[in-house]
Every structure is written in C-alpha cells, then in structure tokens.
Amino acid sequence: MKYRIMMLSVTMLASSTAAAGDPDSDEVARRGAELLQPFQQALQTALREGMKEGPANAVEVCRLEAPEIAARVAPEDVAMGRTSHRLRNPDNAPLDWQREMLEYYLDNPDDRQPRQTRLDETRVAHVQPIETQPMCLSCHGSDLDESVQARLDELYPEDRATGFAAGELRGIFWVTMPDE
Ligand code: HEC
After folding, report:
1. In the chain, where are the structural domains located?
2. CA of 107 to the centre of ligand 1 (A)
C-alpha cells in the first residue's frame, strides 16, 4: 500500500513538472492512433492474403510489403513502422527513444496502453504495443513448419524473432509527426 502511494505521488510529480516540454498526450494519442490505423489494417490484409498460400509464402509478403505499406500510407512529414526487442529484420532496429519505449513495456507487463513522447522542439511520437497473437505463431512461435524455417534461415540469418508465446510482447508500432 505504502509503495502504491509513493508510486502515485512520483507519477503526479512527473506530470506536473514535465508539463512544459511534454506533448499534449491526448492529442498526440488521437492523431497517432488515426495515422497508424491504415498501416495496421493494410498489414493485416496483406498477411491474411499471403497466408492463403501458406505461411512460407507469406514470409515473402511480410518482407516485401511491410516497408512498402508504411511508406505508402504515411502522409508527408510523418514516419511510421514496427520495431522489436527481438528482431527478425535488422533494418527494423529500434532508435534510442524506441528502445526506451520497448524497455518500459517489458518492465511493465501489465501496461499495454499506447504511450507518447516528445522527440525535439518540433516532433512528437506515439507508440502502441504489439501483442503476439495465436496467428503470429506460425512464423514467430517455437514450433515452426520446416518450410517456414527454411525460408526464414535464407532471408534472415540473424533472426531473433521466434520463440514467442501468445500474449507476449512482440514489439511496438511507432509513428512520428510534427507537433501541431
Ligand atoms: C507468414 C509469416 C509471418 C506471420 C504469420 C507473422 N509475421 Fe511478423 N514478420 C514476418 C517477417 C518475414 C518479418 C520481417 C519483415 C521485414 O523484413 O521487415 C516480420 C516482422 C515482424 C515485426 C517487425 C520487427 C522485426 O522483428 O523485424 C513485427 C513487430 C511482427 N513481425 C509482428 C507480427 C505479429 C504481431 C504477427 C501476428 C499478428 C506476425 N508478425 C505474423 C513474418 C510473419
């Protein structure tokens, strides 16, 4: 109990002192969620379509389409993508601020709420945790089909994104935007 009260006052202190430089979290959260929505939607559709021809085929879809979709749906002056603490593609490696977000979620497994931060005077960021779902396990789980594993070995020799369980944090969606 004592601990909880202490935590609460630390949080209150942090929000009142940091107010000057902090983004308007509600506003950034609203814009961030709106910007990420078409990215998430298109990824899901591409994955579902690709899976119709089996997960080994869908590996290729994920590899080629994820960056292409991010570039297509992001308005000018907005960037978005996915990153993780256990990467498949090293091109998705987290920047420092993204690593801090990942660490926050790993340290606080009960908090799966989106978070916002300020990057500099003109830019703010929004992130959403990505939870591993059962349908992700054919490519990110522990018991992969041989054909999937072979495809992954070929394309991602440094793959660290297997061995996830359903419900586990897989990574984050991130978006950066101008501070309006
Ligand atoms: C058909 C296989 C397949 C399935 C199913 C799949 N993924 Fe992936 N995933 C991949 C591949 C391939 C990449 C690497 C994409 C790239 O090269 O950018 C990847 C990359 C990622 C990344 C980016 C970070 C990294 O490690 O490079 C995240 C996050 C991710 N997947 C989450 C998920 C989630 C969540 C699901 C379930 C909803 C899922 N994936 C289902 C194959 C798959």
Report:
1. 24-178
2. 22
